[in-house]
Amino acid sequence: MAETSLAPSAERFFRALGPRAQVVLCQLPLSFVVLALAVAAYFAWPGVYQNGAFLAALGMHALLLLACFLLPWEKLGPYYPLFIPMLDFIAIWLTRIGVPPSVQGLGVLAIFPVIWVSASSLPARSSLFLSFCGPLLISLPALFSKLPGIAAADVASALLLPLLMLTVSFAIRFASVNIRLQHRVLEAKDREMRALFAESKEREKLLDTILETVDVGIVAVNAQGDRLLTNVRQSELEAAASPAGLSGEVADPSTEGQLNILSQDGKSPLPPDRRPVYRAVRGESFADYLVWFGAGAQRRAISTAARSIRNDDGGFNGAVVVFNDVTGLVEALAAKDDFLSNVTHELRTPLNSVIGNLDLVLDGDHGLPPLATQRLEVAHRNTERLVTLVSDLLLSASAALPVHPRRTDLSGLVDFCVGSAREHASAARVQVVADVPVPLWAQVDPLRLGQVLDNLLSNAIKYSPGGGTVRVTARTEPGQVYLRVDDTGMGMAPADAAQVFTRFFRSSEVVESGIPGIGLGLSITKAIVELHGGSITCASRPGDGSSFTVVIPADEPSPAL
Predict the structure, then answer these.
(1) Over 70: is that where the pLDDT of 13 sits?
(2) 65, 92, 330, 370: which is deepest, by most CB within 10 A?
(3) What is residue 278's predicted lDDT score, i.e. its pLDDT?
């Protein structure tokens, strides 16, 4: 295993070198051996330096090493450096014939160029051919020197070196192929591991982002009840439910018993064995389990759910518990139930009685003055509208408001709604002014859009307790009609203006001022406008009044005849 890991490391080191350094590194072993031979020859065979072949061999080795250093191999092709080991065979041949006959075994120097050629990217057949023919070139002169009396043993001796080098070349080729295959396998595994690691890191980041982004508390525990994970939202919820001296970050289910957690009624403390994390540790799975965190005005209604984590054998391995803050929903449902109950019993009966008596007065011949009759008719229409509004309010929780658009002149509708509001405005010392072009056609349900204008005018007058002016204006743009109601009343903060269309919403200033209302009018107004395919916005500042803008589709002009 160590050799397997060492080979790719050496190969990576060699490949990291430049072409010049690679060529020099391949030539240096033979050069060092030749240098050692030259030094030894000086002392052992002084006369060898008188041999021209030996001197030519030394000069050729020196020139080849110098060429390795000087030639621009990086600009040449990949096969050009292989001329060096081919010429090495000639230099070794000169070295062999230049030394005394008593010096044997110099032919083995051919192993250096053979290794170089065999380990190169040269095709296998070419490298094997050179690995055999190069050493054969070195062996043939010794064989030819014995002519004409060449024996079979001499031929066998001459072929021994080429065959040995050929065998070495085969071994190097097989080893090189094996190393390359192992290297590829290791590289593939390395890429796979890196990809898996990067994917794991990305998934971890994604999970962390999701856990810190979702607006629900999440707790994960193992089979022993130890907490594995608690996100920020859960820490905030537990901090709100923690009594003085207890950290908001709960360490285990037993400590959960110290939190102020109430049962579904919001009054009685929840027993420790019925608390969500404790139940989850016992292996229970549940959903929509409502509890209350904290006490007093800051308490929160929390819907909890738990799912068990199972191992491969199906055994309990932990659990995940989710805590969702549903305080707004619970309070809204409670307020809706109370309101609908009160409306059903307190409004419908007296309104029906008023309509019945108005019908009797208007249908009878009582000799009423025309002005009195006109005012009674206005009261009758508004009472019928009020009955309709109450009925819609009762149905709003479960069904959409019916809208029946038709071609309507908004200028007349505005005049009617302004006229109906003037008595209320006079009593509140508010002046109502309308500036609407005549005619102003749009495809709307006049009853529903009249309800929108009545709500906006009523709110504008109601929230101008010190008197002031309410102005209704309108303008048209291609494909759209803009209705705007401005007042000079108390106004509201931008944060409250952003929530003013939320059902049952009332700003803290309005609640403190004691102005009656339940916070449903504007939510119904928005629903009606959106059913017409329009939109409504609010702009307001404390003390500067409010401005409500309704945008609805304009009536398309009829084609010319």
Answers:
(1) no
(2) 92
(3) 87
